[in-house]
């Protein structure tokens, strides 16, 4: 038997899992044999991704989103409804093995929470009644695909037509037609001059990244699109994939042409499996039109093709080097930062990794010209930015804004009333008070990656912090100590405060521990995980004061009643 | 490795140092007697693993793992600032609370790098609460035992143990705090005795244990006498004052043994002649030494041996907190539960069933003992500071009599003291 290339391990595991509903021992052995690796190695991979299961997950597998927006919009009620209707308690299946019910981190449907995936089809704006209808439908033999909701993208705002970059009318092939006019070096220069910076949240200058890759030695180079969009609250990449898959493809061709790559890979999060048919159709369409494949129309001998790699559930795989590991069929553990992917990336070859929106913007720069793009925005942040706005506002959805908009304007645009907190760029971003309305969305001030979550005065800050901390604890890859062991300690501290068991020194402790996790962690996840806690303490000190109890020499967290409960039950059969 | 490379000057904590270009900072520092702790670093694995993060330094004001830094002209590194010392210590403390580290019964004790770092950093008790995770020991491999309670997920074994055919033996499983190391039994069986021994040696803690190995005698192990930094702290106090009985008012001390073995109390008696001095200046109130069962006056210091395993322990400890100005956790059991806490990662039911209902000697009358006069067993053994506020900690199993004496003397009379390296131990 020919040994398969490890890069296809995730694909194969999906195939095996889809056939049986989970990965049995035989599947693990099978995969190990096919790929010529140890079964323990295979299990190390399956165990890393939370959508791979070693136990049956039912004919219908339900994943209910547990992000903060889901919590605030009815998670508990919907969860109870699913448990009642399916007979499966969360984390397992019902006795007949028909339904499996699990929680999962944000699934990119924040503008319509609570939302769930059933066999990876989207179900949005759930209520107990709706859950009942869905489950009855499934019991009646309807398929999840039939019952699923269509995700219509709501473009709530874009600047006047000639200031809109991404969400303007799209004519397939236009960027590629333009590309003919430029040499690869010129393309790199154009992207540099336009001032485009990475839209995945780190804002690294895209032109510079492409230049590194262009200059890197080697004939095999890769273009990778980061469509992992795992940051809770964001769905702008989903919207682009849903509305403008062609624009993304053209952006990747532009990048490929600029750096001299022949293969492109889109790393699509498994949560967006429902977008896969559309994406594949678009790729097929481009191939048919001669824009992808052995030679690209108008670009001489240049050849380039794109494939899609599905993830399997791990927020950390959005981190570019973890993503590369995952693409190589391994556990998604971030690499060290002493080598850049543009030098040694996918399979050790020079690789450009960009966010979906970054590629789309690059295609528009080629299409519309550098001046157009550069003329918009602020000095450090040119062009426009897509924002996913959700939470307590009248008009949740997709916003294309020109960099430089004030926070206050944005809040007015989306109809946010009674606002108290705004979480910018997701849990790893910045917690902002409504008092900061004058601040500006731009690289000079609030660097927003795309997620905007709005919370009104009724929302409890500690619940928000608890939700975020749980997210990081659960999504930490576990490779380094401060993040793996520190996040659970921060979570514990937040919960201690929520239960009114904190002592006065605890707020200082929380700050100190936050600094320790931030400054000693290996990658961006750990380095940003304590952000919101730190900012909450700095911006809302009075809320923390209220949570404290008097320091009186007794540890409030210890309860003799609770500690003796188990013994009482065992010896007296009562609590 | 860096031989032949050109010489460069770097600045380490303000001091100019010459070294070879590209040389790893950890090695440069070591050669210059600056100690940067490390748990996952190997000089032959390049690039370094960078997983443990106990080596954080600052380069140009930015925090970075020391093992990731290579020497180049003009490099400026901060290592020994109070902030960095504290951060590195905190990461070590996290490791102690993340797993189950019961040093007195650990085969690696005295040779363990994590433990040695605890000593080096003067960790009395971690700042974080213990988590007592439930982990499984794997006895199945041919040569080794995987004592997963102690694994710090440094990844050394995963990256550096191979069979003759070049096959890995260890693999990470799961993710986040659930991450653990699994063994490929088939490959492990192919290791030679020497290779398996090496696997044990590269594990910085006591996770990978060779079945055929023997335990070394305490007092003669690698870090028993010489610290990991190889720098012995000053042995004696600068000026150890004599306390003359005439000058001072007698202080009152209370002691108790909760879930302990009285070993710490034996150690207190081990103060030898010091005890005679002490009796001149202190009197004992509630204590097994006096057999006084209830407090008859307020005490200056309470010495607690043992953690809390029953409601009675909790009540006594609370009484001590109310009656003493200063409380000291004496010994490992008071500090982290220690041996009695071996049951902490199992549900109470499992422990009691195993002990009373499912032993080979039971008959039909077997039951879990309970009576109104019997203390109630807690769901787990609690370190004392998780029940009441504890002011000071004296580690050791048991701590040496001298150590206890010095601390008590300091607390009562403010005398200076220094605990010599050999006296500060967790086992
Ligand atoms: C924990 C973590 C998660 C990330 N998730 C994503 C993601 O989902 N999508 C994304 O584009 N970038 C994500 N990033 C940023 C990527 O590492 C990388 O900077 C980005 O893909 C580069 O593309 P850009 O320059 O076009 O933004 C994440 C970073 C970290 C540290
Ligand atoms: S900070 Fe460390 S544990 Fe956390 S995700 Fe990054 S590498 Fe993994
Ligand atoms: S000696 Fe053993 S128990 Fe103690 S820290 Fe080391 S591995 Fe853990
Ligand atoms: S078993 Fe030992 S060497 Fe392997 S990861 Fe755990 S602590 Fe490190
Ligand atoms: S020694 Fe540097 S991270 Fe472990």
Automatic annotation (TrEMBL), chain A:
It comes from the Bacteria. InterPro entries: NADH-UbQ_OxRdtase_51kDa_CS (IPR001949), Nuo51_FMN-bd (IPR011538), Nuo51_FMN-bd_sf (IPR037225), NuoE_N (IPR041921), Nuop51_4Fe4S-bd (IPR019575), Nuop51_4Fe4S-bd_sf (IPR037207), Thioredoxin-like_sf (IPR036249). Keywords: 4Fe-4S, Iron, Iron-sulfur, Metal-binding. The keyword Nuclease does not apply. SUPFAM superfamilies: Nqo1 FMN-binding domain-like, Nqo1 middle domain-like, Nqo1C-terminal domain-like, Thioredoxin-like. Pfam families: 2Fe-2S_thioredx, Complex1_51K, NADH_4Fe-4S. PANTHER family: NADH-QUINONE OXIDOREDUCTASE SUBUNIT F. This is NAD(P)H-dependent oxidoreductase subunit E. It comes from Pontibacter anaerobius.
From TrEMBL, chain B:
The keyword Metal-binding applies. Signal peptide: none annotated. Residues 83-122 form the 4Fe-4S His(Cys)3-ligated-type domain. Residues 6-83 form the 2Fe-2S ferredoxin-type domain. It holds the Pfam family NADH-G_4Fe-4S_3. It comes from the Bacteria. InterPro entries: 2Fe-2S_ferredoxin-like_sf, 2Fe-2S_ferredoxin-type, Hydrogenase_assoc-protein, NADH_UbQ_OxRdtase-like_20kDa, NADH_UbQ_OxRdtase_75kDa_su_CS, NADH_UbQ_OxRdtase_ferredoxin, NADH_UbQ_OxRdtase_Gsu_4Fe4S-bd, NiFe_Hase_small_N_sf. Keywords: 4Fe-4S, Iron, Iron-sulfur, Metal-binding, Oxidoreductase. Its cofactor is [4Fe-4S] cluster. PANTHER family: COENZYME F420-REDUCING HYDROGENASE, GAMMA SUBUNIT, HYDROGENASE SMALL SUBUNIT. This is 2Fe-2S iron-sulfur cluster-binding protein. It comes from Pontibacter anaerobius. The lineage of its organism: Bacteria, Pseudomonadati, Bacteroidota, Cytophagia, Cytophagales.
């Amino acid at each position: 038997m020919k040994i398969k290339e490890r890069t296809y391990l995730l694909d194969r595991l999906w195939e095996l899992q889809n056939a049986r509903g989970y990965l049995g021992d035989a599947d693990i052995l099978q995969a190990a044999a096919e790929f010529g690796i140890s079964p323990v190695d295979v299990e190390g991979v399956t165990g890393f991704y939370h959508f791979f299961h070693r136990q049956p997950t039912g004919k219908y597998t339900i994943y209910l989103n547990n992000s903060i927006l889901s919590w605030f919009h009815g998670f508990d009620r919907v969860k109870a409804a699913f448990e009642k209707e399916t007979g499966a308690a969360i984390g397992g299946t019902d006795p007949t093995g028909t339904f499996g019910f699990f929680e999962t981190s944000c699934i990119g449907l924040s503008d319509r929470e609570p939302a769930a995936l059933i066999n990876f089809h989207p179900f949005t704006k759930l209520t107990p009644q709706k859950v009942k209808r869905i489950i009855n439908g499934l019991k009646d033999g309807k398929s999840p695909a039939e019952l699923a909701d269509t995700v219509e993208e709501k473009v709530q705002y874009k600047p006047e037509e000639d200031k809109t970059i991404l969400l303007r009318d799209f004519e397939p092939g236009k960027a590629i037609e333009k590309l003919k006019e430029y040499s690869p070096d010129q393309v790199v220069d154009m992207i540099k001059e336009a001032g485009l910076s990475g839209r995945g949240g780190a804002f690294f200058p895209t032109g510079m990244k492409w230049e590194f890759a262009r200059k890197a030695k080697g004939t095999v180079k890769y273009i990778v699109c980061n469509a992992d969009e795992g940051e809770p609250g964001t769905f702008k990449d989903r919207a682009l994939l849903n509305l403008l898959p062609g624009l993304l493809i053209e952006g990747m061709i532009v990048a490929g042409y600029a750096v001299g790559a022949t293969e492109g890979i889109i790393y699509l999060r498994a949560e967006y499996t429902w977008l896969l048919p559309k994406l594949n159709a678009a790729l097929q369409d481009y191939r048919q039109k001669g824009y992808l494949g052995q030679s690209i129309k108008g670009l001489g001998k240049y050849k380039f093709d794109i494939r899609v790699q599905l993830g399997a559930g791990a927020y950390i795989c959005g981190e570019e080097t973890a993503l590369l590991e995952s693409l190589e069929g391994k556990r998604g553990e971030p690499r060290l930062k002493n080598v850049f992917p543009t030098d040694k990336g996918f399979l050790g070859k020079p690789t450009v990794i960009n966010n979906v929106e970054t590629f789309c913007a690059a295609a528009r720069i080629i299409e519309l010209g550098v001046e157009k793009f550069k003329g918009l925005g602020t000095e450090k942040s040119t062009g426009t930015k897509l924002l996913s706005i959700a939470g307590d506002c009248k008009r949740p959805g997709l916003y294309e804004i020109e960099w430089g908009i004030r926070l206050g304007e944005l809040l007015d645009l989306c109809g946010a009333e009674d606002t108290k907190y705004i979480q910018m760029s997701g849990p790893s971003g910045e917690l902002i008070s409504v008092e900061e309305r004058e601040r500006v969305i731009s690289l000079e001030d609030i660097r927003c990656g795309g997620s905007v979550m709005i919370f009104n005065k009724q929302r409890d800050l500690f619940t928000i912090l608890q939700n975020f901390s749980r997210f990081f604890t659960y999504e930490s890859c576990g490779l380094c100590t401060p993040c793996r062991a520190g996040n659970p300690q921060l979570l514990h501290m937040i919960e201690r405060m929520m239960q009114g068991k904190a002592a006065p020194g605890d707020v200082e402790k929380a700050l100190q521990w936050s600094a320790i996790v931030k400054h000693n962690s290996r990658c961006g996840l750990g380095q940003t995980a304590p952000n919101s806690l730190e900012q909450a303490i700095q911006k809302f000190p009075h809320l923390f004061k209220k949570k404290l109890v008097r320091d009186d020499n007794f540890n409030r967290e210890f309860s003799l009643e609770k500690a003796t409960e188990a013994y009482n039950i065992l010896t007296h059969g009562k609590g | 490795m860096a031989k032949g490379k050109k010489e460069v000057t770097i600045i380490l904590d303000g001091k100019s140092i010459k070294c070879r270009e590209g040389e790893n900072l950890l090695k440069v520092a070591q050669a210059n007697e600056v100690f940067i702790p490390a748990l996952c670093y190997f000089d032959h694995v390049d690039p370094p693993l960078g997983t443990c993060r106990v080596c954080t330094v600052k380069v140009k004001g930015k925090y970075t793992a020391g093992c990731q830094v290579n020497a180049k002209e003009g490099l400026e590194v901060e290592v020994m600032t109070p902030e960095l010392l504290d951060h590195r210590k905190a990461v070590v403390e996290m490791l102690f609370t993340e797993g189950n580290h019961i040093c007195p019964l650990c085969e690696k004790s005295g040779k363990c790098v994590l433990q040695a770092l605890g000593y080096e950093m003067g960790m009395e008790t971690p700042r974080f609460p213990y988590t007592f995770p439930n982990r499984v020991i794997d006895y199945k491999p041919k040569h080794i035992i995987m004592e997963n309670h102690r694994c710090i997920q440094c990844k050394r074994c995963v990256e550096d143990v191979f069979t003759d055919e070049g096959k890995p033996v260890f693999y990470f499983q799961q993710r986040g705090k659930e991450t653990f190391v699994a063994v490929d039994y088939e490959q492990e069986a192919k290791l030679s005795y020497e290779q398996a021994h090496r696997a044990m040696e590269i594990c910085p803690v006591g996770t990978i244990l060779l079945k055929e190995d023997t335990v070394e005698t305490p007092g003669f192990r690698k870090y028993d006498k010489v610290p990991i930094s190889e720098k012995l702290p000053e042995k004696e106090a600068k000026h150890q004052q004599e306390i003359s009985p005439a000058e001072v008012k007698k202080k009152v001390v209370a002691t108790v043994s909760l879930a302990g073995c009285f070993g710490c109390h034996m150690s207190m008696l081990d103060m030898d002649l010091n005890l005679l001095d002490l009796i001149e200046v202190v009197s004992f109130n509630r204590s097994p030494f006096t057999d006084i069962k209830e407090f008859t006056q307020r005490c200056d210091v309470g010495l607690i041996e043992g953690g809390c395993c029953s409601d009675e322990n909790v009540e006594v400890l609370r009484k001590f907190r109310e009656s003493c100005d200063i409380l000291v956790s004496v010994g490992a059991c008071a500090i982290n539960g220690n041996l009695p806490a071996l049951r902490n990662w199992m549900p109470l039911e499992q422990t009691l069933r195993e002990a009373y209902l499912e032993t080979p000697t039971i008959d039909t009358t077997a039951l879990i003992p309970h009576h109104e006069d019997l203390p109630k067993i807690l769901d787990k053994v609690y370190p004392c500071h998780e029940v009441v506020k504890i002011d000071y900690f004296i580690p050791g199993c048991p701590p040496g009599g001298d150590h206890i004496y010095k601390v008590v003397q300091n607390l009562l009379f403010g005398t200076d003291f220094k605990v010599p390296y050999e006296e500060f131990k967790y086992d």
